[in-house]
Amino acid sequence: MKRFLFVGLWLSCFFLPVGAVLWGYASFYTPGFANRKTIYVYIDDRKDFGNLCGRLIDSAGMTHPANFKRLAGLWKYPENMKTGRYAVTPGMNYWTLLNNLRRGQQTATRITFHNIRLIEDLAERLAEQLMLRKDEILLLLNNPDNCRSLGFTTETIGALFIPDTYEVYWNISVENLLQRMKREYDAFWTDQRKKKAAAISLTPVEVAILASIVEEETAAADEYPVVAGLYLNRLRQGIPLQADPTVKFAIGNFSLQRILFEHLEVDSPYNTYKYAGLPPGLLRLPSVRGLDGVLNYAEHRYIYMCAKEDFSGRHNFAVTLAEHNRNANRYRAELNRRNI
């Protein structure tokens, strides 16, 4: 009897640890989620472990939450969470995911910004895609010292942002984001582009200002070089740009369809009917095509332009004032016909 008891105890001592190991392996090392494609979970400044578990259940189909919480507790993860965007891939186990989470081994995200007009719009767009607040972004973009450190003013800081798609970490700080954009800006402004800018007596920032006017002026991208060439002709000859979009910017109404004489009287450095040369800042964030449209402007003798009377967003161009007046009369007649 004693021998059987001894054998039983020995078997228990052997199989219990083995069973514990097998249970641990099954709990932590086998696939723990039901997702068939990669999903992402986000951990913000609140570092809410309960919220994370809820998202893993809802989005990734976590199969055994108790086991996940048990392992997280053993690793003291709930007390040491790190912000970020983390991938949960098909077949991933709890051990691997928790190891990534506690090490802060996150997955980069893609941010995109196109067709941005105001700095406020840019800050909102970035805040939608990153763990940033609109107000904290604007705090730095409206800070003269910070803008100066990057080579811009508060009026020209928009030129730093070349519209495109970039990979960054979701929890990137505003300071690091601006430094990243500065590297992208420097990479965009190659020696070749700088030489083209110098050839038309403009700095890269001035190219961006002119490109922003060009893009507000025409809806047709193929007109960018022609419109840019026209404005460059005016700058060279000392003629005020007289660009309607700058008036709209000055009065804060981009939806204005008809510029009246009273609008032309607004006293603003952005009113290019009142002040010669380029305005002090951008009207919008110009696209790469817009910037290159200025750098590769079309050479011609046009001095005047007027929107086409078909409201296509395109323009009639003219060399002489008489020709321009004919174009303008046709456009005004159509405005009147449409009661605009």
Tell me which oligomeric state these chains represent: single chain
What characterizes the major β-sheet? 2 strands, antiparallel
What general form does the structure show? elongated
What is the domain total for the residues?
3
Classification by helices and strands: mainly alpha
Which strand order do you get reading across the main beta sheet? 1-2
Which value, in Å, is the CA radius of gyration? 31 Å
User: What integer is the average pLDDT?
Assistant: 91
Quickly count the helices: 15
Elements, N to C (H/E): HEHHEHEHHHEHHHHHHHEEH
What does this structure look like?
The chain has helices spanning 2-28, 49-60, 65-74, 94-103, 119-129, 134-141, 144-150, 174-188, 191-199, 204-217, 224-237, 244-251, 261-264, 288-295, 321-337, and strands spanning 39-43, 84-88, 109-112, 165-168, 304-307, 315-318. It is mostly helical and 340 residues long. It folds into three domains: 28-103, 2-Layer Sandwich (Dna Ligase, domain 1); 112-188, no CATH class; 191-300, no CATH class. The strands form three sheets. A two-stranded antiparallel ribbon has the order 1-2. The chain has a two-stranded antiparallel ribbon with strand order 3-4. Strands 5-6 form a two-stranded antiparallel sheet. Helix 10 crosses helix 14 (288-295). The radius of gyration is 31 Å and the shape is elongated. Mean pLDDT is 91; it is low at 4-11 and 14-25.
In short:
This protein is mainly α and 340 residues long. It contains 15 helices and 6 strands.
